[in-house]
Amino acid sequence: MLKQLRSKKVMKRILQVTLFLIIPSFVFFYGWSQKEATRSPGFYFARIKQPGIGRWSDITEGEMRFAQNSVQTQYAQMLRIPPEVFAQQGMDKYIPMYDIILEAIDNRILLNYAKKGDIIITHEEIKNFIRAMFPQDTYANLERYLNYTRQTEQGFIQAQQLRQTLGKTKYLFLSQAKASLFELWQEYLISEEKLKIDYVLFPVEQYRDKVKVEPDDLQAYFQDHIENYRIPNQINYAYVLISKADLATSVTVTAQEPHDYYDQNKTQEFTLPKRVKVRHILISIAEDADEEAVDAVQKKIADIAKQLEQGEEFAAMANQYSNDPRNVDPQNEEVKHDGEAGWINEKSTTWGKAFTDAAIALKPGEVSEPIRSPRGFHIIKADEVKESSVQPFEEVKNKIQSILTDQKASAILKQEGAKLQEAWEKYTTLESLARALHLPVHETGLVNENTFYFTKIGSLLDYRDLIADLELGLMSDVFVTASFNVILQIKNREKSHLPLFEKVEERVRRDYQSYSTEELARKDAEAFAEQSESFDEMKKLAEERQLNLETTEETFTRLEPPPTLSNIQQFARTTIRTPVGTISVSPIGANMDHPDAFAAWHLKEKQPPDRAEFKKALPELARQYLAAKRPVILNEFLADARNRLKIDINPEMLPSE
């Protein structure tokens, strides 16, 4: 079928099917339908409901997998490491589940918007994407890629259709960004206006010992916040499990089998493409920029190329001129990365086909001519080149060992699963079935009734309707997945209820102490500010109370405040609106709900920037401002759309207190 993709007619037919499946209903990719969505109120990850529409719609496992890949890529880019390395190092486990659920909900919103707006990806766009991904021997390389990643061609096309539909929809919002002169002046003030501030800190921790926790206070706090402690409907399941992971521990792989597998599959699975480790200098410009702007950027990149030819160091030029945001350390803008862009191979799509082709053609130490990508103009330098090669057996033997172990364990799981099914048809109780097969009966312990992920079992999302209909004391069907076979039985239920105070007393105590400590610090800071009608009174009051009044001797900009003030929440926007001489109170800390301290601060001085310099900086300032504003427009749209929805997130998916 891959060869048929050469045919425009065949590609168009596949994409029409893809559009039908993904854009209007998401049935194939996400594995749900309107009929299924109305069967049961149970859900696994989250569910959403449109206002005025009486049925909930699940965020499904397919959507969550897609969202997880997207969020994982975002985190990897933020940390400047390849996504596959991010996953291999197990860093994906640190991604908050809430971020993934939110991404899945946002994707659903965007796809619905695309459907209403007739935003589609044409067959030509998909074909161009495939050609860019595999510029040489396109269809043979695509087939090898699908075999290696174990994807079907239709699944691959649908995934790309989905990604590009989301991308095109996001671009629609990003292109709406505009910048007024007032907005740009405000941004210029944030970065260039200089301030002096006097302040007194009220650290929250210093008030902890002042909180007296009385039994009556705890009881009152508990009653005021009692719904925060509600226990939802819960079920304790008994179960019999046959797990592939357990079976794998008894699997034996002979010494010869990995060698045989390697010999049979090394060309398809263990051949590395040619790779080039590159640096680059990027001068950004929009794809739809006018001719005058393009000419200006071309002249600038040509001048940089000339300086490189005359012997200027590439790393230094990259640090001086490159607009690539990844060249700047996110923790310290003074730290640059010498234009490093990592390893590029023929399948790389980050910078576009022109960039990839130019990079792959370079020899070690060679510098490219200026080339244009969708992001702007680049000059590329190759630091290191690794030709296409077959990985040595020793490098991949552990991977092969895992593959063979998994294959054998899967075969045993299939056999044992058949025995389990046969026993299920013969026996009427879970205990008798377990005795006959010499299997233990386990218990999940109390879990939320709408949970379809079990810590000691795994995900049973595909069987959620059957689990929701399960009656007390009766065995479920045999639930079969690629990783395990399991039979469930409800052992006991507990209805949603408010716990006795004694059951949650320690949690209430922690919450009350945290709340009371923050309140003491906040009230003390506010009282101090109210009594300080001028700086002189502020200074006098600080001396009377033996508080440390700090003064910033040198001016500073809002983007580079003194370390102590760097975490004042919304510091830049607050100080722009604050007149000189004002005394204000602000929370300090990364957590908006639980600040580390409160600052009573006096705005002593403002030194506005020069307006002539502002005029010179306008073009670059506008570019940077729009780059920052575009995601905000999209995020505001998504936030508004989420606010119009009813969203119910399964509490099992979120960290417990």
Please write out the topology.
Elements: H1 8-25, H2 27-30, H3 34-37, E1 46-49, E2 57-59, H4 61-78, H5 83-88, H6 97-116, H7 123-133, H8 138-149, H9 153-174, H10 181-192, E3 194-203, H11 215-224, E4 234-243, H12 244-248, H13 256-269, E5 271-272, E6 275-284, H14 291-309, H15 314-321, E7 328-329, E8 332-336, E9 340-345, H16 353-360, E10 371-373, E11 376-386, E12 389-390, H17 393-426, H18 430-437, E13 442-448, E14 453-454, E15 458-459, H19 464-468, E16 479-480, E17 484-494, H20 505-531, H21 535-544, E18 549-551, E19 556-557, H22 571-577, E20 583-588, E21 597-607, H23 611-644, E22 646-649
Antiparallel strand pairs: 1-2, 1-22, 3-18, 3-19, 3-21, 4-13, 4-17, 5-12, 6-9, 6-11, 7-8, 10-11, 14-15, 16-17, 20-21
What does this protein look like?
The protein has 657 residues and is of the alpha+beta class. Strands 3, 18, 19, 20 and 21 form a 5-stranded antiparallel beta sheet that branches. Strands 13-4-17-16 form a 4-stranded antiparallel beta sheet. Strand 7 and strand 8 (332-336) form a beta hairpin. Helix 1 (8-25) crosses helix 9 (153-174), helix 11 (215-224) packs across helix 20 (505-531) and helix 13 crosses helix 17. The two termini are 52 Å apart. Mean pLDDT is 84; it is low at 1-42.
Report the principal-axis shape. Answer: flat
Biggest sheet descriptor: 5 strands, antiparallel
Distance between the termini: 52 Å
Radius of gyration: 31 Å
How helix-rich are the residues, as a percent range?
Answer: 40-55%
Please work out how many helical segments DSSP would assign: 23
Which class best fits the helix and strand makeup? alpha+beta
Average of the residue pLDDT scores: 84
Per DSSP E runs of 2 or more residues, the count of β-strands stands at 22
Query: Which percent range describes the beta-strand content?
Result: 15-25%
